[in-house]
Hints:
Elements: E1 3-6, H1 23-33, E2 37-39, H2 46-52, E3 63-65, E4 67-71, E5 77-81, H3 85-95, H4 114-123, E6 127-130, H5 140-143, H6 147-151, E7 159-160, H7 167-171, E8 181-182, E9 199-202, H8 209-217, E10 221-226, E11 238-239, H9 248-253, E12 265-266, H10 269-276, E13 288-290, H11 294-302, H12 310-323, H13 326-331, H14 335-339, H15 343-353, E14 357-360, E15 369-372
Parallel strand pairs: 1-2, 2-3, 7-8, 10-13
Antiparallel strand pairs: 1-9, 4-5, 5-6, 9-10, 11-12, 14-15
Helix pairs in contact: 11-12
Amino acid sequence: xxxxxxxxxxxxxxxxxxxxxxxxxxxxxxxxxxxxxxxxxxxxxxxxxxxxxxxxxxxxxxxxxxxxxxxxxxxxxxxxxxxxxxxxxxxxxxxxxxxxxxxxxxxxxxxxxxxxxxxxxxxxxxxxxxxxxxxxxxxxxxxxxxxxxxxxxxxxxxxxxxxxxxxxxxxxxxxxxxxxxxxxxxxxxxxxxxxxxxxxxxxxxxxxxxxxxxxxxxxxxxxxxxxxxxxxxxxxxxxxxxxxxxxxxxxxxxxxxxxxxxxxxxxxxxxxxxxxxxxxxxxxxxxxxxxxxxxxxxxxxxxxxxxxxxxxxxxxxxxxxxxxxxxxxxxxxxxxxxxxxxxxxxxxxxxxxxxxxxxxxxxxxxxxxxxxxxxxxxx
Length: 379
């Protein structure tokens, strides 16, 4: 049986993260969402590692994989996947002379470059790649033009796409040939709106940390799933103050200052990926399935102000209690089965599967939005 894996989340020790982000809440959320492999997140933090100890073996059968994110020199973020928490503890000891907050923070700043950080991870048996690689503030391709510029002589084991990109954004970049792409939620909350909003479907294999790492090494990823890239906060080149969007040529002509309010114009992921793409045809990649969280679909169907309203939660709870995990509802279940519970949601899920979605791209730090034609929303 395949595994749905979300390998990048954060703990309650990271900034702007829910205080309810606890191991038990995360395991419960995985069951409802349909995630069978979960990255622990923040595994350099000793308290967080201890909090996980009683949940590594759980009745839900969710495999917890030790993962961590660090910020290196130049504000570049890196995601690492480790064999066990003992390796994370040893890695924390190696990095601690270069990080003031490694024992307290969720995602510490490490005053080292990518080659040194990757070398330390590899020395402790881990895998490493750039987190949200195209993101304009903290992505590898924001600071560097090539893998070698960032990682030096150390290998890069995978590349995380981020919410503003899908596989097509990296498929035309020649140096990424043979490097697996990961799509993860980067969740700061255990809400099903956040956890698993992006995930990786792995080929069947033993549900062990070693097997998951081997499947990533070998590119045994059968599907990436997540946002339409246009929904991401940094998809289009835009002003970071008023969010007015510009073409790359317009931004250059304005010298990266918004003519409306003099705010800074930030290059979008779509433009940056196009800059890096080779002239040849994109290289083959596993399919990327564009999804919208079920809670947001329900919100559109009910016309409420938020997917967190009581009405939306009731419909979500009824659907998942009757039909199973959210991912199964969005991807696999016959529409007729969904219609037996809620015809409005069934119609919207059917429209999503057919691509009948109008996208309103985000940029400059503001999320994009969407309209599902079946719900009768104004576009």
